[in-house]
Amino acid sequence: MADAAAAPASAPEPERDFGVYVHVPFCSVRCGYCDFNTYAPGEVEGATREGYVDAALAEMGFARGVMGEDPRPASTVFFGGGTPTMLDAAALARLLDGVRETWGIAAGAEVTTEANPDSVSRESLAALAAAGFTRVSFGMQSAVPHVLATLERTHNPANVERAVGWAREAGLAVSLDLIYGTPGESLADWRTSLDTAIALAPDHVSAYSLVIEPATRMGGQLRRGEIAPTDPDTQADMYEAADDALAAAGYAWYEVSNWARTPADACQHNLAYWRSEDWWGIGPGAHSYLGPRVGATGEAIRATRWWNVKHPLAYSRRLADGDDPAQEREELDDDAVVLERIMLGVRLAEGLELDAVPSQRRAAVAGLVAAGLVDGHAAVGPGRRVVLTRKGRLLADAVIRELAP
Fold it and tell me: Which residues does the UniProt record annotate as the domain Radical SAM core (predicted)?
């Protein structure tokens, strides 16, 4: 076993669930704002979709060897990317079968794939449902053509409604992903997108503020003065508009950027991340995490994170040679575990238990309550939890800095 792999674990903490993430690194085009590990046709010579599927299945076998006799089936499975539905439904079903054969899939497990609205059909969505997928997350981003053009999204806005209808026919739960704060997007544009998304009655909505990364095409446009960033105050107004519109339509926020019609409609896979549960990431550049555990010989093993080589061809070659696909590995000391628990947990509507905050930082909570960033009743009530107000959601990073060790 290479050093980058996690140590075998025969006795995980029983209260932690286990999830599987499958990274599919293909898109029809690379959007101008995207800095994910994805590749458009022709960008990676020698890396094929068929070769990717074989390599991903090989990594699942490798993972089973690393995890040892871990008894936990996958409670969530999430196919992300990229655009997973660049693979045909038969290939996605084959990968899901690989998860099933490697770990098992728990009864009632949430099984999600992301999708571009233009990359699915009635037949493909029905095939995914038959294979065991339960949920599809469509990258809608906006309903306004000029906003989609700035983002370099290629789908036709009208196709979102059609894709949602096909998903419903197949019995799949539906999530819509939106982006706000695109250069040139007005508050009225954003409200149009919100109204359009809500009219489709999805089970779940994600709304993310656009972050323009320097290495992207949009980052280059920003440096050259071809576009101007959206004013932060306008972005805050857009967030509040989303929260108001979604709440009025019956959606409740459960994480800073996510709303669900009922608690059962929340993305259980992402909740596992925010609650610091365990997951294995399959695919080029995928990250994995196993929390503190007991090794095969009874030794204590620290929480461990590792990530795979990013290039699809290098990933496939390593696995074809029987090697570990991980590029690097790190063990988290106690302070790092606490910091991550705060960074992730404070973003949830359920909040963070006050006992998870280092004792020397708990006095800061009173100041956060006084500033209107943290709910005072939740902080002093029976549960003693740090729960963000809406103002606190807008300034979540500032709250985290006050609480972090």
Answer: 12-252
Region label for 285, one of left (φ > 0), alpha (ψ between -120 and 50) or beta (otherwise): left
End-to-end CA distance of the chain: 34
Q: How many angstroms separate the Cα of 44 from the Cα of each of 39, 49, 83, 152, 314?
A: 7, 11, 16, 21, 11
Q: What are the tokens at 365?
A: 């909570």
pTM check: above 0.70: yes
DSSP 19-32: EEEEEE-B-SS--T
Question: Taking Cα atoms as reference points, which of 296, 315, 295 lies closest to residue 307?
Answer: 315
Domain ranges of the chain: 9-273, 336-403
Query: Which residue has 């449902």 as its token pair?
Result: 129
**For the domain 9-273, what is the CATH superfamily, name and number?**
Aldolase class I (3.20.20.70)
What lies within 8 Å, CB to CB, of 52 at 6+ separation is 24, 25, 26, 283, 284, 312, 316
Q: CA-to-CA distance for 188 and 185, rounded, in angstroms?
A: 8
* CB-CB contact of 290 with 9 (8 Å): yes
Q: What is the pLDDT of residues 338-349, one digit of tens each?
A: 999 999 999 999
Say what the alpha-carbon torsion angle 366, 369, 373, 379 is, to the nearest 10 degrees. Answer: 90
DSSP letter string, 263-309: GGGS-HHHHHHHTT-EEEEESTT-EEEE-SEEETTS-EE-EEEEEE-
CA 149 to chain centre: 24
| Average pLDDT in the chain | 91
